[in-house]
Amino acid sequence: MKCTLPGEIPATTDITPTASRVSPQAHLPTTSRGSRWEELNRKITACRKCPRLVRWREQVARTKRRAYRDWTYWGKPVPGFGDRQAQILVVGLAPGAHGSNRTGRMFTGDASGDFLYSALYRAGMASRPESHDREDGLVLTGVLISALCRCAPPKNKPTLAEIHNCLPYLHQEVRWLPGLRVIVALGRLAFDQTLRLYRDQGAAVGRLSFAHGAHYSLGERLPWLIASYHPSRQNTQTGRLTPAMFDSIWAQAKSLLSEQRAPSAVRPSTHRAGRADQGGCP
Ligand code: SF4
Question: 24, 111, 193, 208: most buried, per Cβ within 10 A?
């Protein structure tokens, strides 16, 4: 079966412009490429495909958390954020109810985001170490952050059907990152569903194990895939994921940028640490 490159994944998204706000880094020069990203982001933020998630994200936005009662919650799906020429793609699970669902930007406004952006800042890929709201001027270089599911789910747990509803948006982003070299999957579910994405496109990817720091080639001319624990509070506050462990992921990602892609379909990691773990939700 033909193994399709990231840039060749067929478009599965019907892109229909609708009015909405987008993240600051989405305001790039109006080229044809920029324009189609804007259209995709408008399509995402207008999506109502999953009734349970639509109800939940909007209910959370109305009731709010006491600490954020003065905020106008975003309460909509959250588009990808970052560098549209990225060589590194980060795949999370879903927005946090009072994080991204409040601020409207990936990993922005909660402890998971603080942990992620401080690591990206140390790695030289983020312009600032914190991320409070979508107008804070944060700029990412060489990395784009996305997720399996764009709506905040109850108990941070989207169903598989909801994830599958949402995956076409991730497919589209992957398709528009022709220089993509490394995917960092945050948590087991992101890891498994990223593999599914490539298998669905015909990549001969076998059974791969999730372990923090494990990295794999997905095949000739396809990106490397790195598995990382998710920077959820349950992982970072228990010490399961430390700043040093997370820093090693980004050092590994940068190191792999200069690696030749493996000629074989799958090459297991030579660098593994830790044990398999779901890693929680944002
Ligand atoms: S989870 Fe994705 S597919 Fe479902 S409503 Fe939200 S944006 Fe749409």
Answer: 193
**Counting atoms of ligand 1 from 1, which one is nearest the CA of 153?**
1
Nearest CA to ligand 1 atom 6: 151
Q: How confident is the model at residue 33 (pLDDT cuts 50, 70, 90)?
A: low
Q: Which is the closest atom of ligand 1 to the Cα of 54?
A: 5
Going by alpha carbons, the residue nearest to atom 3 of ligand 1 is 166
**pLDDT tens per residue across span 75-100:** 999 999 999 999 999 999 999 999 99
3.40.470.10, 3.40.50.300, 3.40.50.720, 3.30.470.30: CATH of 19-257: 3.40.470.10
Task: Report the separation in Å between the CA atom of 233 and the middle of ligand 1, taken as the mean of its atom positions.
Answer: 24
Position 30 confidence tier, pLDDT thresholds 50, 70, 90: very low
Burial of 262 (0-12, 13-18, 19+ CB in 10 A): middle
**Alpha-carbon radius of gyration of the chain:** 17
Question: pLDDT digit string (tens) for 128-181?
Answer: 999 999 999 999 999 999 999 999 999 999 999 999 999 999 999 999 999 999
- 3-35 in b/e form (b: 16+ CB < 10 A) is bbbbeebeeebeeeeeebebbbbbeeeeeeeee
pTM of the predicted protein model: 0.84
- Which amino acids bring their CB within 6 angstroms of ligand 1? 44, 47-50, 53-54, 77, 149-151, 162, 165-166
